[in-house]
Amino acid sequence: MNDYNELQSRYENLPAQQTYGSLLGWLVNGGLFFLVLTFGVYVFGFFDPLVPKKKLGEVWNLPLHEFLEKTGAPVGWEWTALLHTGDYLSIAAIAFLAAVSMVCYFTLLPNAWAQKNRLLLLMVIAELGLFVLAASNWLAPVSH
Amino acid sequence: MRGFTLFDFLLTASGPEGAQTLVWWVWPLLLFVATFLIGIFGVLAGIGGGVLFVPLVSSFFPFHIDFVRGAGLFIALSSALAAAPSLLRANLASLKLALPVALVASAFSIVGAFLGLWLSALNPAYIQGSLGTLILGVVVVMLVSKKEDHPNIRPGDQLAAFFQIGGTYIEGSTGNRVEWTVHRTKIGLLMFAVVGVLAGVFGLGAGWANVPVFNLVMGVPVKVAVATSGFVLSITDTTAAWIYLNKGAVLPILVVPSMAGIMVGAKIGAKLLPKSKPAMIRKMVITILLIAGCRSLFKAFGI
Fold it and tell me: Is residue A11, in this structure, part of any structural domain at all?
């Protein structure tokens, strides 16, 4: 009977799945709109880019470290200081899309807490930790 | 070392002086057209666009492979993000299955992203060569793997019980309620660690690997396997994408037209899907991957 109950609870989908799906849908649609808008600003030259568009052909075939040296392009979160440039305004929209899963993961926390589902809570916190680790650029020295 | 690209062709065709100024906007446009076609074929062949994008664009476009891998991750991420909401709401993508798998795969995708950038800094040929080998491996997977709609599960998998992996969905073709769980969870999670590394190193969406591991190894019904694979990519690729973003390896001029092209192409592909001949499309994609894989290998050896 215990095995039966365990299997039945295993077959139940997490209620948080619906909330996660709906929120993700809103954020992704908003993110894509933001992306198209900022790319339009960049391509049609409303804001001057950091790397002039006509020079791109000279640098996009370079290895990353040479590209960074030659263009003075930012690493880590330095791009946030360049939001007045067309190319890095587009990066903001790209970064937003890279952040939507993090926002959705946060919504799982209260649900796991309310259900007293410690395993779910641990997995969500661990994944959020990985997101923060990757996004924070704290790992940058590892690669040097 | 770089070989002959479309870029060289345009340079030759437009003369030495005018080419640099002429072509900056031509490349995003060509990229949009290429990714539009990749989007269509990706859907029709049942594979993600990322696996076609990286070898084809790094072989035939002038961009350095560092930027192509960054763009590859973002197009895989955006396709996965666009599809995930409706799949989650339909209970085809499973949060319970995705959470442990994504945790393992995204931890290893961070390792993979650093490994890829490090190898590329040592010598881009290492990445080109291993990418070529991997793409030929994908061809083998596509040729030999079979799918099972509802695999038989051996009960008693302790990890599946521990993680409470399972779910229920309504089978659209019959209206039946299907309950499912998994087996061989330990082997599955180990395989997802490898898949995570590969996604990080090469900037590939790893749907081509996720689906067979879910379906053939863990015994997930094929519809849930395909849907959850896409959802897992939306999490795994997020971590790897941040590494590339922080390293400065993301160029909007590559990423945005590619994302737009692949998403529009995927929508058209989904509309064409009912009328398409899957076997023929699959053969075409396998041929394209074979060419792209060989081209990457040749590039690595400077041929």
Answer: no
